[in-house]
Amino acid sequence: MKIIYRYIFIELITPLLFGIAAFAAIFIGTDLLFELIEYYNNYGVELLTLLQLFFLNLPTIIVITFPMATLLGTIMSYGRLSGDNEITALRAGGISVYRLVRPALFLGILMTLFTIGVNEYIVPQANYLNEQIVYQFKHGERMPSTQHNLFLTPLKDGYPDYVLYTKLYDGETGVMQEIIFQDYEEGKPVTLIQAENAVYTGDRWKFLNGHIYRLEPGERIPDLKFEEYDVNNLNYTPAQMARLNKKISDMNFTELIEYINLKKSQGNDVNKELVELHQRISIPFASFIFALLAATLGIQPQRSGGSATGMGLSIIVIFIYYTLMTVGSALGEQGTIPPFLGAWLQNFVFMITGGIMLYRLGR
Where do the domains of the chain lie? Predict the structure, then answer.
């Protein structure tokens, strides 16, 4: 039995690689190349820099192509085995359909895990480096890490815990400038602090050169002038504050969870970010779903196994899948359905469809 599994698994590899190359070429030829040509024509970017941008964009493209390539490769492989009557011979030898699809499912799991790994450890860094390079040649300077007019308003029991405003926050040095900090108790402002600067000392923020005002109804009473003052309840680290300036596509899974918790603590809607978070798993999981569906499609006796048939079926399935994904994402982001369901809707539909097809085929 292991020999049969190994034989089918090897049959899957070549079409899979062909699918990765074919779909990657489509994305590169229809999108990335035009983008690079625009950089060359409009900004005079050097060829070495263009080459660097090309490779930095590849991880994102490759990750997108993996589920599609798994679908195409599996349909072509099982179609070829079916067309040459090898599937018929194996079934006549007592091997069930459920066993025949195991190599495809194993490949789907491998592709899913590999995609999650690339998405977590390579894609965010590559996207961030790509943005830095593009910003630099477009603006003639490094991409700034500063944030202007930054507000933080975390909630506690439904009321503001405090309100922080800083005119300028430098993400590299972790220094805030021109700060106003208003503290609340039971939803009412009790203290106002104005300071020129603030620095992080490792476990708390130290405000420098400012005043503290005690707030009474209808008045503001000067209470203390200080050169240094520790603010213990400002519980955001410089890294967390710098993350507010980062794009979601540049964050790994852990950073995205922290970003969502940060926005949620301020009472902001996070449905869009939650959909994005769940899609970090659901989209790679499409490789497994596609492997299940493609194996049942390819194993059908009427399939000729030709590459044109496989490509045609793949395009139809991919179109339906990404249409459902777009609809699910929109519904999840608007809160019409839970974000988890919005991110996984297309997978549930295709998994149920593939399961029913496999069951009927195996009867």
Answer: 1-140+270-362, 154-247
